[in-house]
Queue: 3 jobs
Job 1
Amino acid sequence: MKKTFFYILLSGTVAMTACKKNFLERQPLDGYSESSLWGSDKDALAAINGCYKDWESGLHLIYLDCGSDNAYNPYPWEGYTVLGSGNLTPNNTGDQRWSFTVIQKCNWFLAGVDKAKMDDKLRARMKGEARFLRAYQYFILTQLYGDVPLITTNITPAEANGSKRTPKTEVVKFIMDELTAVVPDLPASYTGNDVGRITSGAALALKARMALFTKQYDVCIAACNAIIATGTYKLYPVYGDLFRIQHKNNSEVILDVQYKENDVPFESLGVMPPASSGGWCSINPLQGLVDAYEMKNGKTIDDATSGYNADDPYNNRDPRLAATIIYPGAMYNGSYYNPINESSSDYYSPYGNSKSGYLVRKFTTDLSDYADMWNAGLNIIAIRYAEVLLSQAEAKIELNQLDNTMYTALDAIRTRAGMPVVDRAIYNTQTKLRELVRRERRVELAMEGLRWFDVQRWEIGDKVMNGTMYGARLGNVNATTGKLTLGTERILVEQRTFDIKKNYLWPVPQSERDINPGLSQNPLY
């Protein structure tokens, strides 16, 4: 809803890109109409492809954990520091997501596609794609802002600028109804150049996520069971490798943002590696996340019998720690990472290095995978099968259905990572299993853009996002062996505040309210 001319500009742009015909068959550039635009299935295909543009951003997904207790963004101008600090305002919204661009594209497509001369089954599939993409936008909007305008038709600029916020409950019902409706019209998979389009599995998986987030646990379990029953998806055998470019579109991926080197590249991989490897160090994992990983024997680090050694804190830990985070003493790109000694080029305090002593390894496991990390063809996963298994387990735990299916789902996640199965002697009550599944979600899905939503829906912000955020202990890393020598001082990263009456929602940007004075603001902003 940016400006009043937006919808006119959008319609013209999409129309132009949707009419790529043979030169001799083209009408004059100033003569397009709705009848000439929707001439064939090729026109419809071009139009639906336009709906995919910017439906999600890999950059948003990899940065969003900086708005949670998982990570810190040291550069305020990138738009994520303020998301974690609790200092959001209507005029300082950080990386705000209040956008209806994709929604309007989908509404425009759905209003016109019936005019195209094409196979009815293909038309139904394309409609399903557009309805999913629109539902996904509303999922993001409702999670971040609560009530938002529900716009399901191709409206005029005047109507857009006079829209009011619809209660979240109504928008959620719309999302769920849409996702249910499109499943029969979407294929289970695609081949060739169509890989990456919306599938029936993606619709079910988003439905399961939305149901879990809104405490519709029976609905969540049913959607997860439907996905599992298809046999389409399975956990990729090696946890760290499922994020590498040579394994993109693997068996675990349900939905991802597709990129292609040179043509439509992912230009943000370089924000993660150390400066000594040419990276920007923009995403700094926090100590709380590091501490969440269990010991390799399945015991938490606060268990006196776990074998945890505070002076050798990264040894014998859950393998997902090393696959996700570059920590002091870790081998990375040919050398041992040393952010904890001031004589090192990786030392945490200079501008351009990690401010926590930790960096993200996930997505950049091996920089030799890329000819240019600023021009990569790596797809960024938005939903994967592991999340489905975790959602099924969590929903069952919340309903106190502590059955073998729930344990099997958690065991599959853990054993794939190299961890032991769930200890039934310890995790045999709803309270203990809730503790376990929440920890499993945090470490399994770390740095994939879901942690903030979990903090929000579990209402734990005041417990995990208040006060001092810490990083690694200072000391030294032996450059030859990687052995740690740690002191007592720990890096202080940031002081944060979290107001439970305010910070579970983001503010509606003031710039949007200036355009549309009828938009109300979220509480205390």
Note: The chain has three domains: 1-186, 190-258+379-449, 269-373+466-496.
Job 2
Amino acid sequence: MKPARNRPRLAAAITAGALVALAVPTAAVVPAFAVISDPGTHIITVFPERDMVSAEGYADSDRPTIQVLRGGAVIGTVSNLVPVGGIVEVNHPGGGCWEGTTPDIRSGDVIRVLTAPDVGDQTFVGNVTVTQPATKINAGTVVMKGTAVAPGGGQLPADQLEARIVAANQAFALNGRRTLRAGAPGSGEDGTVVYDGPGLTTWTATWTGLTGVGTDGVTDADRATAANTSESRGMWLGRNAAVGNEVTIFEYAAIGGPAAPCTAPLAKGPSTPDLTAASDTGRLNTDNITRSTTPSFTGAVALPDAASVNLYIDGVASGSASVAANGSYSITSNRPLANGRHTVTAGEVSPGGVETLSAGSLALTVDTAGPVVTAKAPAVNSLMASQTANVTATFNEAITGLGTASFTLKNSAGALIAAPVTWNATTRVATLNPNATLAADRKHTATLTAGITDIAGNPIAANSWAFTTGPRPVVTAKSPAANATAVSRTANVTATISENVTGVSSGSFALRNAATGALVSYAVSYNATSHVATLNPNVTLAANTKYTATISTSIKDAGGNPLSGLSWSFTTGR
């Protein structure tokens, strides 16, 4: 039967003071990371007896995820739902299906509808039941009985409680609709629902005057109590019944579990264990990565009388705990886990000692090793680094915490150089791009701080490396020219260098007989103003002889960048 889409009506006699929001039960606490409205601007309707949820008010582009939480643990999920007319549903024809197992939705469970990983609305399942379906007392009177309990105990406010009878095919003669409603006395509904006494949480709904006859010849009283064509409902209208953005509908005799075409089996054991907030050290609350070797897990049991829960990691018993009053469990592994992947399951134990294992398992990764830099550019202690090149660090794994405070560059005076920092998740390369050209021939220091962590939360070992910018010095002119002929036998050999250098000497600037390799006796001088190195032979060079001049890389500029080495030859004259 398709759930009714009309919203609950506010009773005319309800005063503003009666619209007091209920306190949210313990299970409805929102984690600190979440940005979740409770209740929200969307309408969430829960059908606990059919393990069904319907939510309204979503854009066509939304792809909501619906979760069921018990004791703070997620026990049911369906994701990437496609709105139809602004509505998303789960476990109902035309809607989505629960993933893995169908949760046995109960009062006090939290229903959360997310439009982003940590953004959405939530409500809790109201504790309203029908204990006696619509029953004909006399020709024109029908009663229904049930319970309604507030989250903290005691009665629900009268304006939050409603009883309904829904006919399958025909409208009631009384109101021309398919439903008969019962609200607080004076609400103007078709009938009234009142508690059975002061402080009691049992209630009775009564409809009178149901003697009208429909077009099929059936009286309203008979239509309301027909076992096969009517449905009895108890309803919680939400913390603010006038708004109607959260509703729980208890349907008498409805059957739970997967509804066609859904096939995920009804949960019969505890929920799949999940990392507790304290152990969830990963960047996301869904990545199941922890740096704790003895992590803690939480979840919820399926059986109301479950006494304890056992934890199994890789099939090995790893701890146990009693079940809390709200049906949740929390267990810390009693043995340290090695780095790597692990499979975590749980089993709930009944008072009679029968254990039922969870239908699903958690794939967990333990990671206690911090990220490692596998490559740096410019390289450690490198010279001749480009003044316009980026500084990069390649990591062995994904990281977080990267930014201008955790990846820095300073000049030789220790001043911070402004530079944006980016991260390529595919190549795992962090890039620092200086805003200005770096000073020439200067030492620079790049630093990675412990603010950078892997997705398990392990920090990098803080480290720094230095490099020196170029450009490297080069010979811009030489005399005699390369391959010159008829060169004077008494001429000096000179090399003009692009910048001031050190290390010009007889060991770094030499002249040899090209044929024999014999070193010519000479003296070397250097002019720091003109940057000219001069080689003055001590003897007259041989006539018609080829000589080779060599200037080596041992000559360096102020930053330590080596000269680009060079050799050239010339031939003397007569």
Note: Confidence is low (pLDDT under 50) at residues 1-33.
Job 3
Amino acid sequence: MFNRKQFCLWVLLALGSFTASADEGMWLPMLLKQLNEADMQKRGMRLTAEDIYSINKSSLKDAIVQFGGGCTGEIISNQGLLLTNHHCGYGQIQSHSSVENDYLTNGFWAMTRAEEKPNPGLTATFIVRMEDVTKQILGDVPANLPEAEREKQVQANIKKVQAATTAGTHYDAIIRPFFYGKEYYMYVTETFKDIRMVGAPPESIGKFGGDTDNWMWPRHTGDFSLFRIYAGPDNKPAEYSPNNKPYTPKHHLPISLSGINPGDFTMVFGFPGRTTEYLPSQAVREIMEISDPAKVKIRTMKLGLLDQDMKADPKVRIQYAAKYASVSNAHKKWIGEMRGLKKLDAITKKQEQERKFAVWVAQETGRKTEYGQVLPQFEQNYAQLAKGPTLARDYYMEAVLGVELLNYAQAFATLSNNIQKADPAAMDAAAFQKEVDRLTKAATGFFKNYNLATDKKLFANLLQLYVKDLDAKYVPTILQTVTKDYKGNWDAYANFVYGASNLTSQEKVQDLLKLPMGKLQAKLLADPAVNLINAFSSIYRTSVLPTYTALNDQNTLLNRTYLQGLREMQKDRKFYPDANSTLRVSFGQVDTYKPADGVTYDYYTTLEGIMEKEDPTIPDYKVPAKLKELYLKKDYGPYGVNGKMPVAFIASNHTTGGNSGSPVINSRGELIGTNFDRNWEGTMSDIMYDPDRVRNISLDARYFLFIVDKFAGAGHLVKEMTLVNNGPQQPAPSDVTVKTETKVKKDKKKTKIKEKVN
């Protein structure tokens, strides 16, 4: 038993062990005033929370967009010019490319507005305002309701609030759970649909270092691309029209030429995708020892097969460039994540946290009732998941659906199943035709970037791996034919499936979809690809998904309760919610780091590093002749510093996927860089942040300007931007409180800051 003195001492120690580092956190913009403004100003920020997020006046939030649903972009001119990463715009660059016009290899620059290229389906979404809607969503939801029933009622309430909020407007409303459904916040959004490609450097700049350098520091990648938002005559969202005008934003970011120095304040403003910072030790073990290793194994095989075909055929290289980059990005991230968690001894640290939580729970009877079963139930649930459901789910998602033919066949299997369920004589012909029209239209996009021979290799190898690594109960009986009829020859089985299927070419699909319902159904019932995906999906739906879903629904409730207990236990701690693709702010500082014993990395890189890495025999390290010429002449214009051209820098901001393309903003609200990656040693920050090793990697704004202006000769784009040079950031005060008042003149080229020091 603890005596009072011992207990007080333990509480102090426990609270200290749970305190987040100064740079950790992805914070809600609407709560910056009460939670973060003072801390940010102590770190050197010269803005107020109202300058960052406001619904009463233009603010930084009005220059930030969610780009395409998976990245972030920022507005950098009063004519709707949008800056994001090269890898965020990669799909659009690839879609406009061909062997004859290879924009991936050669780059693209629109020298007039007429040359800017439309991108059907691409969107840019602004946040109009945020609102805490927890009471509206949870107010009538009974306590202790089973999780599935609770979720149904929550979703019904969400629809009601969304409908009431957007009625009579062109806005949308997104409502997301925070703290595992303990709180709900609404984001009212405005989405623009006419987004045109303006510029992109060649891959030798935009992807310099390629997969070799991905997730690594030092980095020398010019990872940017330029787009423009177009609007209707009323400056509101409109479908593509040649008559649309460049969007006039409420705010655009001025770009600083002052550069960066160690200790400078940095703020990243964007849409981080997903983090799970409050997982229990059992969940971290599952990630480290089951899920990540499985996914890495599957993607290692897939990347090797894609690489062979892409190197052998220029057409395949273009077709699969974006796909390869997507597969590779997560693959390398998971490897770094496993290494980082191991080096951080994450499981042990989580277990220590849980031991302290258990001691706290044991102090009071009420806590035992509320929280006593949380940790034991975690242990039981994750033990059940480890017996097979987690691995089976990962192999279904990565190996089965990693085969394009099987992934594509899902829509046709659904159509077939719907026809089979209905009475053909009474079926709605209009609904049937609508689905046929949709599939016919989608076929063009799918087969443009599809190579049958490549996919056939993936089929044979990935399915063989699936059968080899999983328990037999997860393997469809239809695959017994491989052993029986094909003597275990997976290539021969692949030849049969791809030869007999009607889903392997655009011509076959279009002919298939011209058939009347009855004949179409007969063809689909006989199609080996449809039958195979049906067999896999049946096992997944009956033997994997129910158990996996039920256990994870329980874990969601347990996480909600566990986190509630931690927040109750640590009342003075500022908790930030996990990332969920909603607008967030993170802040930190420009800083070096030590990745290993005896090694320290500097905080910036330069063009000299590109020349040091140059190797014409390695695709990742080819350097364009024009860039070498500018380097040799030291022709850097106003963007270089002391005869050198800065390229990238690192800081301690807490970022994740979705932050790609996010602006890195200095203490005065000026753009100093564009976030594009994290260091490999810090990829575990999605699960556990380590201030000593976590660094976000950003493109220096001056290198972006240099490439646009001096390399591409697209100075007309630079002219529409607002460039400022207000000198170095002032050092962060240590012992004083700083209040600031910022006024931006109409000139937009000068920012005067008045300080009042109390």
Note: The first helix runs from residue 4 to 18.
